[in-house]
């Protein structure tokens, strides 16, 4: 049943804050299981609440529901996306189904004492779904002592997990620099102030931030990902402005602050060198995901109980990707774990047009969530 449901959701992907169909399925299945449902938190977000016994501990489990704005190119799936330009290329279809399965199983067993909130979050893929749920009062409506997240990982065998304390995912920020010069004829550069040359100087220097300014023992990424200036229809015109934008990643608040400062210093220095101006914006999107030690210990115990200690890795490299689960775990202790998705078929990792969630991973995910709740809320 859960595999069929996962494939149904896969065939009907919805982007962030558009998860009308998906959240409708979630509401229906939670309600049928006797779980209290709160809909509309963060637009399309859903929170299911199950309270049993007199235990005072309260925890939250989070799954994301949204798809990506990209085409699905695999041709051999009868459940391929039916919506052009939209695809579940990160496994959120699987995450949704595993948490639904666990919620229904816990409602059936009634085997814990305390409160668990099942968070079905919209818009994880860069659209701010966690922030929207929190701004709509998640922690006021559903106070919790700890929060847990799970993400599939191609390359880890199905039936295996990685549970590690400390940094798991990097902060994810955007930056933009606009160089403002004086445009002129391409044959008469001396009559203007060249924003294009300043932008080139800036791009060359940008990569010295990580190589020469950040502590070599502190991982960081600064990448320029977009540039805009001039026209290929007017190759004899030096433009007035050149705009450059990109992303930056870090695992610590100090390095994140340093990157913001260094990009700005390079932008202003490059502009001054060529006698022009630079406008700089640094947009903080989400903090890093850093696992709390006690929450990680609890998640590890559940994983080992579920799968066996030999199937659970306690060392696994962090990812430079980001996840707005960090918005929840910066408010209360949290742990974010990796669930094996099996080999990356044809090299298809997350955000690849051939990626697919592995249905064989569903049972392990459901068992992990169920065991975590039963151990966390044992009423002792």
TrEMBL record:
<feature type="binding site">
    <location>
        <position position="151"/>
    </location>
    <ligand>
        <name>Mn(2+)</name>
    </ligand>
</feature>
<dbReference type="GO" id="GO:0050118">
    <property type="term" value="F:N-acetyldiaminopimelate deacetylase activity"/>
</dbReference>
<dbReference type="InterPro" id="IPR011650">
    <property type="entry name" value="Peptidase_M20_dimer"/>
</dbReference>
<dbReference type="InterPro" id="IPR036264">
    <property type="entry name" value="Bact_exopeptidase_dim_dom"/>
</dbReference>
<feature type="domain" description="Peptidase M20 dimerisation">
    <location>
        <begin position="175"/>
        <end position="266"/>
    </location>
</feature>
<feature type="binding site">
    <location>
        <position position="90"/>
    </location>
    <ligand>
        <name>Mn(2+)</name>
    </ligand>
</feature>
<keyword id="KW-0464">Manganese</keyword>
<dbReference type="GO" id="GO:0019877">
    <property type="term" value="P:diaminopimelate biosynthetic process"/>
</dbReference>
<feature type="binding site">
    <location>
        <position position="92"/>
    </location>
    <ligand>
        <name>Mn(2+)</name>
    </ligand>
</feature>
<keyword id="KW-0378">Hydrolase</keyword>
<dbReference type="GO" id="GO:0046872">
    <property type="term" value="F:metal ion binding"/>
</dbReference>
<protein>
    <submittedName>
        <fullName>Amidohydrolase</fullName>
    </submittedName>
</protein>
<feature type="binding site">
    <location>
        <position position="125"/>
    </location>
    <ligand>
        <name>Mn(2+)</name>
    </ligand>
</feature>
<dbReference type="InterPro" id="IPR002933">
    <property type="entry name" value="Peptidase_M20"/>
</dbReference>
<dbReference type="Pfam" id="PF07687">
    <property type="entry name" value="M20_dimer"/>
</dbReference>
<dbReference type="Pfam" id="PF01546">
    <property type="entry name" value="Peptidase_M20"/>
</dbReference>
<feature type="binding site">
    <location>
        <position position="351"/>
    </location>
    <ligand>
        <name>Mn(2+)</name>
    </ligand>
</feature>
<dbReference type="InterPro" id="IPR017439">
    <property type="entry name" value="Amidohydrolase"/>
</dbReference>
<keyword id="KW-0479">Metal-binding</keyword>
């Amino acid at each position: 049943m859960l595999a069929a449901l996962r494939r149904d959701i896969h065939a009907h992907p919805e982007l962030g804050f558009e998860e009308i169909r998906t959240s409708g399925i979630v509401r229906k299945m939670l309600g049928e299981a006797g779980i209290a449902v709160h809909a509309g938190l963060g637009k399309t977000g859903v929170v299911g609440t199950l309270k049993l016994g007199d235990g005072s501990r309260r925890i939250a489990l989070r799954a994301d529901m949204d798809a990506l704005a990209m085409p699905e190119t695999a041709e051999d799936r009868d459940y391929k996306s039916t919506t052009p330009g939209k695809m579940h290329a990160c496994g959120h279809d699987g995450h949704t189904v595993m948490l639904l399965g666990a919620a229904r199983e816990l409602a059936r067993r009634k085997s814990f004492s305390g409160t668990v909130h099942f968070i079905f979050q919209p818009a994880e893929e860069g659209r701010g779904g966690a922030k929207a749920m929190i701004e709509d009062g998640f922690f006021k409506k559903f106070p919790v002592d700890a929060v847990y997240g799970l993400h599939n990982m191609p390359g880890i065998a199905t039936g295996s997990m990685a549970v590690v304390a400390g940094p798991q995912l990097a902060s994810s920020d955007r930056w933009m620099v606009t160089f403002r010069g004086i445009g002129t004829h391409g044959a008469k550069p001396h009559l203007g102030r060249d924003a294009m040359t300043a932008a080139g100087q800036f791009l060359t220097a940008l990569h010295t931030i990580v190589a020469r300014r950040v502590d070599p023992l502190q991982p960081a990424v600064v990448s320029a990902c977009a540039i805009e200036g001039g026209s290929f229809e007017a190759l004899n015109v030096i433009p007035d402005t050149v705009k450059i934008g990109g992303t930056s990643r870090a695992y610590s608040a100090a390095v994140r602050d340093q990157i913001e400062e260094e990009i700005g210093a390079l932008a202003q220095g490059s502009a001054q060198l060529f006698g022009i101006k630079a406008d700089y914006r640094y947009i903080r999107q989400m903090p890093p995901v850093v696992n709390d030690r006690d929450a990680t210990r609890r998640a590890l115990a559940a994983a080992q109980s579920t799968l066996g200690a030999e199937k659970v890795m306690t060392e696994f490299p962090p990812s430079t990707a980001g996840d707005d689960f960090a918005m929840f775990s910066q408010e209360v202790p949290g742990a974010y774990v990796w669930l094996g998705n099996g080999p990356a078929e044809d090299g298809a990792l997350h955000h690849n047009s051939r990626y697919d969630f592995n249905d064989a991973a569903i049972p392990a995910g459901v068992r992990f969530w169920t065991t975590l709740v039963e151990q966390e809320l044992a009423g002792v």
